[in-house]
Design goal:
270 residues, four-stranded antiparallel β-sheet, 2 helices, 13 strands, signal, SRP1/TIP1-like
């Protein structure tokens, strides 16, 4: 009986170490194309642990290590439940498969991302991404850095990321709407604190998607910890080492915990 209980505890410890509470984006997916002026569609699987009831979504561009914020498309979404959100696709330049979404919540230290997708022009035309490999790694994941055609229309990052945006529980976007139990969106006026024609864009030093030879996946990627101070700087590439250390320490403690429980369990078998 003691051995059985110990073995059950061991299995539970492995399960607890592998479970992550995070929203999982599933649309847009690989190959998704949306035309300027049409409806851009976003869909996700909710976090059942209840840390994403004030979720924000940002439109991003850039490589996997230097992400560039373009605009916040929604705030106050309920990411604890499966949901979807639609808004008017903005005019961008260039029209290419170099755009993706970042999901965040003030209650979670995790960030997660949807795969890159194409924003084409109103006639559906687009060009290939300028770069075919990720910098520094050589991973075959095409990318580029785009911009809003009208930078003055940009909505800044959420305030909990250091962007001065709203974190109230009311969905906001430029003509966006949600389905299900979430509220209908209202237009969000751009803030002078956000990226504009004369202000630099915000970059973050975390990955948008899991790196693989087949390119960005529609499953989420996450940072080990969100450092709010990073979002207040224009370029946070210097914090890559800190993020890697945080991730390594987290993995080390998890491994140590599992080994300790395993040793205790096997000792009871003897």
């Amino acid at each position: 009986m003691v051995a059985s209980a110990s073995f059950a505890l061991l299995l539970a410890s492995f399960g607890a170490a592998g479970v992550r509470a995070i929203v999982t984006p599933n649309e847009p997916g690989p190959g998704s194309v949306y035309n300027e002026g049409s409806k851009c569609h976003i869909q996700w699987v909710g976090d059942k642990d209840g840390k994403w009831d004030n979720m924000a979504i940002q439109l991003m561009t850039g490589d996997n290590f230097q992400m560039v914020h373009l605009t916040t498309v929604a705030t106050g979404l309920d990411g604890n439940k499966d949901g979807k959100f639609d808004y008017d696709c903005p005019d961008v330049t260039p029209n290419s498969a170099i755009y993706f979404y970042q999901f965040s919540s003030p209650e979670s230290s995790e960030l997660t991302w949807a795969t890159r997708f194409t924003i084409a022009d109103a006639q559906g035309k687009s060009v290939p991404p300028e770069n075919q490999e990720q910098p520094g790694t050589g991973a075959k994941i095409p990318w580029g850095t785009g911009a809003l055609a009208d930078p003055s229309s940009a909505v800044p990052p959420p305030s909990f990321l250091g962007g001065g945006g709203s974190t109230t529980n009311s969905t906001t976007s430029a003509g966006g709407s949600t389905s299900g139990e979430s509220t209908t969106g209202s237009s969000a006026a751009p803030s002078s604190a956000g990226p504009g024609p004369s202000t630099p864009t915000m970059t973050t030093s975390v990955r948008p998607t899991a790196t693989s030879s087949s390119g960005p996946q529609s499953t989420s990627g996450s940072s080990p910890q969100r450092n709010n101070s990073n979002s207040n700087s224009n370029n946070t590439s210097g914090n890559n080492g800190n993020s890697a250390v945080a991730l390594g320490m987290s993995n080390t403690w998890q491994a140590a915990l599992i080994l300790a429980i395993s040793a205790s369990a096997f000792a009871l078998f003897l």
